[in-house]
Design brief:
It comes from Neolewinella aurantiaca. By secondary structure, the chain is mostly beta strands. It has one domain: Beta-galactosidase, Chain A, domain 5 (Distorted Sandwich). Helices cover 1% and strands 43% of the residues. The protein has a nine-stranded antiparallel β-sheet, with no helix packed on it. Strands 4, 12, 13, 18, 21 and 22 form a six-stranded antiparallel β-sheet that branches. It has a three-stranded antiparallel β-sheet with strand order 1-2-3, with no helix packed on it.
């Protein structure tokens, strides 16, 4: 089931399965900003990443001395058990609580809520994780929204670029075929200090994975039609930029944490960027998408 809210500027629709933002429409122009999940290319809109980002080394991880196999990107994505927790004029909240099913992959007692709020031309996505257990719990968290490129149908893909908030020199960590990362990096074709040109070839070797960017916001722009949207990700520690090489979209992915590195020791709490949450405590993080 899908649920929608709107204001005088934008309308959003969220799929209850996986709590994926499936539509973001500018009501002035009628333009749809979200990738429409063509299954022949990539059948998702905006997966929610919890409690891992990407893949685990050898597909498993050690938690409290036991081995667990957590699905790529975690237990929210494609999950049919999220409930519609609340809905009002300007926001929708979905919830997943731990169960015997979730504990087959991730053994902690938790409550996970994600809220999508519209405010003027902004969509703000809030994530709240509560530790219901008696010991610390560990997790990574991420967004994976895919935006249409081109937004204007007759623009070429390579007429688009990402303009970062500050000048950048970061290289990208290399994603191996098994989904793990290497400490080795590959160059990124930065232009004019803060411009990342988009091309299908840019993603021939999977995602760009950044762990040391200066910027905490980025604008998707067209050389023909100007700025299209902005993603603010203050507080998030890592960023992924990804598309299928044959996909007319780009994912701008705020992360806290990363996929396992190839030399990972396989212990969950030792993952880079892992969040430690004390018993009975809550953790809240958000990012903002602005239609320009």
């Amino acid at each position: 089931m899908r649920h929608s809210v709107e204001n005088h500027r934008i309308r959003i629709t969220v799929d209850q399965v996986g709590a994926e933002l499936s539509s973001l429409v500018n009501l002035d122009s009628g333009k749809e900003y979200m990738w429409q999940a063509d299954p022949a290319v990539w059948g998702s809109h905006a997966p929610v990443l919890f409690p891992i980002i990407g893949k685990l080394k050898n597909g498993t991880t050690e938690i409290n001395g036991e081995q667990f196999a957590i699905t790529k990107h975690g237990i929210i994505r494609n999950n049919e058990n999220l409930e519609l927790y609340s809905q009002s004029d300007d926001r929708i909240t979905f919830r997943l609580s731990s169960s015997e099913k979730t504990k087959e992959e991730y053994p902690y007692d938790f409550d996970f809520r994600i809220t999508f709020r519209v405010r003027n031309e902004h969509v703000i996505i809030y994530h709240e994780v509560q530790n219901l257990g008696t010991e610390p719990m560990y997790f990574c968290l991420g967004g994976h929204p895919a935006f249409r490129v081109p937004l204007h149908d007759h623009d070429p893909y390579d007429a688009h670029f990402l303009r970062f908030e500050h000048d950048e020199t970061s290289a990208s960590h290399i994603v191996k075929e098994d989904g793990t990362l290497t400490t080795a990096t590959r160059p990124v074709p930065w232009e004019k200090g803060n411009i990342l040109p988009l091309s299908h070839e840019l993603f021939a070797n999977d995602a760009l994975v950044f762990r040391d960017l200066n910027s905490r916001s980025v604008v998707l722009e067209s050389k023909i039609n100007g700025p299209l949207l902005k993603v603010d990700y203050a507080g998030w520690t890592h960023l992924g930029v990804w598309a299928k090489p044959n996909g007319n979209f780009v994912c701008i992915e705020p992360w806290i944490g990363l996929a396992d590195f190839e030399d990972s020791d396989g212990v969950f709490k030792n993952k880079e960027g892992i969040i430690e949450l004390a018993a009975n405590e809550s953790y809240v993080m958000s990012y903002d998408i602005k239609v320009l």
